[in-house]
Amino acid sequence: MKYEFPDNFIWGVATAAQQVEGAAFEDGRGLSIWDVFARIPGKVKDGQVPDVTCDQYHRYEEDVKLMKDLGIKSYRFSFSWPRILPDGTGKVNQAGVDYYRRLIRCLKENGIEPNATMYHWDLPWQLQLKGGWGNRESIRWFTEYAKVLLDNFGSEVNLWVTFNEPIATYVGYGMGTFAPGLTDEKYARQALHNLLVAHGEAVKLFRSCRLPDAKIGIVVDIWKHRAGRPGNEEDEAAALKGNEIAGYGWFLHPLFLGGYSEELTKYYTENGLTPAAEPGDFETIKEPIDFYGLNFYNGIVDNAEEARRRAEKRQAGGGNYQDKPEQHPEAIYEVMHMLVEKYHVSVPIYVTENGALQLDFGDRPKEYFLDDPDRVAYLKEVFRWLHKAIADGIDIRGYYLWSLLDNFEWNVGTFMRYGICYTDFRTLERTYKNSALWYRQVIGDNGFEG
User: How far is 450 from 448, CA to CA, in rounded Å?
Assistant: First the structure.
């Protein structure tokens, strides 16, 4: 069967500044929370730091050429807040502005549309020292930063994202496994409330700029949970928590329906975690956007017995990275319908991240990673279900594959390779994997045989 996608469907790739740029201490860039967090012993696998990563700061022209040769229509990247404003507020770093101006110009000269994210987890360290997202002032800090971006690039970029995956802030403030490495749930819940208000204020600012061709949205990842044994009390409770209390419902409800959900409000009340809010906050959070960005990787089946088995295995020294979860690419279809039917998302949807990983234990040659049939098989399944959702009438405008390059994958460093281009982290040479060549064919045909 031939799966054909709509005319003008955008096929893209995605990266993030902290993960690919490198040049961490060059040309006036300030420290980010990840630069500091990575230097805390035990926080990042094998003690790796994001100082160089893929060195895109110096090699962006090479990467744009890779994209052009693959037929990529749009590149989703993020601005580095500390590269633009080294202290988070105040003096603008002109060298940082100039870098992004060169990158955007290069993309457009090669027929690739920029899709720019304002914040992809790299809060300036100087702002974290003032309380970070837990400080209500963070709303003002972010709005100032957004204004610098819009003043400098508003006429050059037509697709804007305020925040990528807000949940990562909770992982860093409440769970300790992401930067800045804190474990205070109340503080983390407050941080997420402030972040959502900052999103709304940035949207208001964007509207005031009157950019006729530009659109703005937000990216929320969805890992949809379902009970492994329907009707089992433990499984149902785990799925509810994963969806509404510690997952997508936390964000989608206030963004599209208004206020926090009944389930989340109950949890806040019972645990003394209700964030401080000011009058008008929820109206600001619900400020209308032009598109919604979905990051999707998998669906999750919650089985309490299986979870206990995995926990015991990890405690015994096995499992963890080696114990890969089941793949449920079909869940993207259910997620798309949920967005429209439960959350009443009426704006266009882009899949802003989706991909599959390879684990690098350091004992396999480059050639092993270049041959990646599992990634192609996974992408085919995702595309089939995406095609079906489009056929159902859901307004899906584009797809961004994560990622162009193997890069610095946060707290696991270079252990997880998501790229369709292999990165040799010693020489920084890039090499197409077979999945890249397959994706080029998909783009050229605007679909695939499956």
Answer: 6
